[in-house]
Amino acid sequence: MSNFLDRNKVLLTEIAQSAPLRKGPLIGKSTMTTVYQLGSYYSAHLDQVVHLALKEHPYESRGLMDLAVIQVIAEKCPNVYDELPLVHGFLRGKPDEYIGVITEDFSEGRIHKIEEGKDRGFFVFPEAPHELKGTVARADIDTYDLAASSFFVNGKRRIGDFNSFYSGMDIEELERRFMISRISSELEKYVIRISYDP
């Protein structure tokens, strides 16, 4: 188990024990995903304030895939560990209804402007996470798709969109690259259940 997954469980436990999660203003929106502020809390484990976001997407399986990719990046590319979201979990209501994914709010409550990596180049994207090509991502991944996985906050690169790393793969390749069955069998460890509307 990677250090990311160990830390992830600790942070999700802290979040579950903190104040109620409340959906705040819109942070961003794409074709199928809408991202909202979800407040912040002080993490004793990290000794810092963690800003949270809620990613609303119709398919929980995408969040599962994202978590699998994150842990593989953490294991294979430790040099980009600090660019990954601090936390990645699943928010469910009653009766076990999937609400969305809890993750880090890179904007820290819309204090910081977020620039998408795909907007920082034209045909050539020198700031894309090329170190993931051939390790986590396929060797033939399009450079634009690689750039689209990243965001820039105050000039610092963060990696937060993982769809391009697994899009189009069949189940055998997904299992070989990302060990989906392992993450799926442990999914309950990364779920927060609430009895109220966020």
Percent helix, as a range, is 25-40%
Q: Look at the structure and give the mean pLDDT.
A: 92
Our Rg estimate from Cα atoms comes to 16 Å
Task: Describe the strand arrangement of the main beta sheet, using strand numbers.
Answer: 1-2-3-5-4-9
Assembly form of the protein: single chain
Share in β-strands: 15-25%
SSE string, helices as H and strands as E: HEEEHEEEHEEHHE
**How many distinct beta strands?**
9
Distance between the termini: 31 Å
Largest sheet: 6 strands, mixed
Which term fits the overall shape? globular
Question: How many domain regions?
Answer: 1
Low-confidence stretches: none
| Computed structural class | alpha+beta
Task: Outline the structure in words.
With 198 residues, the chain is of the alpha+beta class. It has one domain. Helix content is 26%, strand content 25%. The chain contains 5 helices and 9 strands; from the N terminus they run αβββαβββαββααβ. The strands form 2 sheets. Strands 1-2-3-5-4-9 form a 6-stranded mixed beta sheet. Strands 6-7-8 form a 3-stranded antiparallel beta sheet. It is globular, with a radius of gyration of 16 Å.
